Inverse folding.
């Protein structure tokens, strides 16, 4: 089987992406980035639990500390002086949670690791159609980065970068995940909390709308659900 590097944040989109890649017969090499985000510890836990679910051995798991992004700042996920705004799914503006050019750093780490472990395939859980409007999640950016990666690596290195859910809605991603037994219950999407999902940030709202449109219940517990039960 071919070896594929999959960027796994611990969120739903990257989890379903890893499940698709596994279903398609690849051996998984999972890469996770800690960049000083608000929910860094919880996302790392989700990464490890999903990796355990897929029985990925330790030598094919890589956690990359990327504190450069926290030092640069410019995002409410990495700079505590910038308030994390409530999500607004009707807005066309890029939210404050956008981490400047984060996915270029993430992809560069994936390319470097792929070259070292002789993998020709990289997969990411980027979503353009039903997302927070981040510019570094677009297909045009991904294609441009693939060209740059192949220009900047050894001649024998031939890298393809795939994003199997990039054109999907959250509801479609959830349905795909359910159909292939993706461990959605292990994922974490909330931007602000590491215990109960806040239910009001952009990521939570997108996820909740996706489950509602899919006609399914989210296995993750939200703050408002607990408050409703008390």
């Amino acid at each position: 089987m071919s070896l594929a590097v999959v960027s796994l944040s611990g969120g739903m989109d990257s989890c379903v992406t890893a499940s698709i890649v596994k279903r398609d017969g690849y051996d998984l090499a999972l890469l996770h980035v800690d960049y000083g985000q608000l929910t860094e510890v919880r996302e790392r836990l989700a990464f490890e639990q999903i990796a355990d679910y897929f029985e990925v051995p330790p030598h094919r798991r890589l956690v990359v500390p990327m504190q450069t992004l926290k030092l640069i700042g410019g995002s409410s996920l990495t700079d505590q002086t910038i308030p994390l705004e409530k999500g607004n799914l009707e807005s066309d503006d890029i939210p404050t949670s956008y981490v400047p050019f984060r996915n270029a750093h993430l992809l560069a780490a994936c390319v470097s690791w792929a070259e070292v472990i002789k993998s020709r395939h990289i997969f990411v859980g980027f979503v353009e159609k039903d997302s927070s409007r981040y510019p570094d999640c677009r297909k045009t950016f991904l294609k441009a980065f693939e060209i740059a990666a192949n220009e900047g690596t050894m001649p024998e290195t031939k890298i393809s970068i795939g994003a199997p859910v990039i054109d999907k809605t959250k509801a479609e991603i959830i349905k795909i995940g359910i159909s292939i037994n993706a461990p959605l219950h292990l994922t974490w999407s909330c931007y602000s909390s590491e215990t109960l999902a806040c239910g009001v940030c952009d990521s939570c709202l997108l996820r909740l709308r996706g489950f509602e449109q899919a006609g399914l219940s989210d296995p993750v517990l939200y703050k408002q659900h607990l408050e409703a039960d008390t």
Observations:
- DSSP finds eight helices and five strands in the chain.
- Residues 87 and 201 are 4 Å apart (CA to CA).
- The first helix runs from residue 12 to 23.
